[in-house]
Write a structure and sequence with these properties.
Length: 128
């Protein structure tokens, strides 16, 4: 069993920054790929960013490229999402996810159904 706990959300003005963290525990997660997803009110959950188990490959949604950076601290198994130049449309509940089904050669890091471990989420609100 894998436990994921997010933190770092909050209210920020447009143009500001936030850093989300996801503390992971349970199994040996060094072999797990991890990702961030978000869900705005009335919308489906969408992919934000992902990182391969080694940390050597990163993947981003087009809407966040150049503004968000995903990283992980492997010894502590903590996943981060640095969010800069935030926009009101970034407002959502952000959740981290983990999976051991993806290899560095996979092309489906963006797919929610590839991930079978999810955190509860943290709210990010960007005011205009």
């Amino acid at each position: 069993q894998v436990q994921l706990v997010e933190s770092g959300g909050g209210l920020v003005q447009a143009g500001g920054s936030l850093r989300l963290s996801c503390a992971a525990s349970g199994r040996t997660l060094t072999t797990y790929a991890m990702g961030w997803f978000r869900q705005a009110p009335g919308k489906e959950r969408e992919f934000v960013a992902a990182l391969s188990s080694s940390g050597s490959n990163t993947y981003y949604a087009e809407s966040v490229k150049g503004r968000f950076t995903i990283s992980r601290d492997n010894p502590k198994i903590t996943l981060f999402l640095q969010m800069n130049s935030l926009k009101p449309e970034d407002t959502a509940v952000y959740s981290c996810a983990a999976t051991n089904k993806l290899s560095p050669f996979s092309r489906t890091y963006h797919a929610t159904n590839e991930y079978d471990n999810w955190g509860q989420g943290t709210q990010v609100t960007v005011s205009s």
